[in-house]
Amino acid sequence: MQRILIALLLLSFSTLCYSLPLSTTSRWIIDEPTGARVKLACANWAAHLEPMLAEGLDKKPVGSIARHVAQMGFNCVRLTWATYMFTRHANLTVARSFGSLGLQDAANGIARYNPGLLNLSVVEAHRAVVEELVKEGVMVILDNHLSQPMWCCGDHDGNGFFGDMYFDPKEWLQALAMVAKIYKDTPMVCSFFLIIS
Ligand SMILES: *[C@@H]1O[C@H](CO)[C@@H](O)[C@H](O)[C@H]1NC(C)=O
Ligand SMILES: *[C@@H]1O[C@H](CO)[C@@H](O)[C@H](O)[C@H]1NC(C)=O
Prior knowledge:
Bound molecules: 2-acetamido-2-deoxy-beta-D-glucopyranose
Oligomer: single chain
């Protein structure tokens, strides 16, 4: 919970000179006006665990984490999310989420470092994290990591795709539509792809 998991997904760094939204040609992601390839260098930031808040916000202000990510040379963050956060817990506040899990120390840390997030809903807080990343020029890949918020992944956690206990295709589509609507005017949110890994 307290750790920010930062994983280098792709080891290629590139210039930040491209226009959004990005385009594709054949297997490549490109900048449409120039046709130049855009290489994503993404850090992973987990926000799909039980409290449904990006990890580490009880330790540092969200803006300083976002700045640090950019300074390390990443041009992108893969920010995870759980389907149920949007379909079942959208109005739960961060304070109540941590409170209901008995995570008082973490809640105190959030009150200290990110007081503005405490009374937001978990969905609003997700958006606030995206906005801080965008401010730093970092693109965001919203990764629908699982259905039920929890640590991921096991072969028998019921949290994979079709046929799994927590996966309801209708609810999944509902969540995808909600996320698309929330972020449709944020071109720095350049994709949401699905990874069950
Ligand atoms: C959140 O609140 C809105 C407005 O009251 C309501 O329409 C929506 O169904 C609620 N969402 C959830 C997941 O409870
Ligand atoms: C959050 O809400 C609680 C209860 O309504 C209030 O006491 C507290 O001052 C609020 N905190 C912030 C940072 O707005």
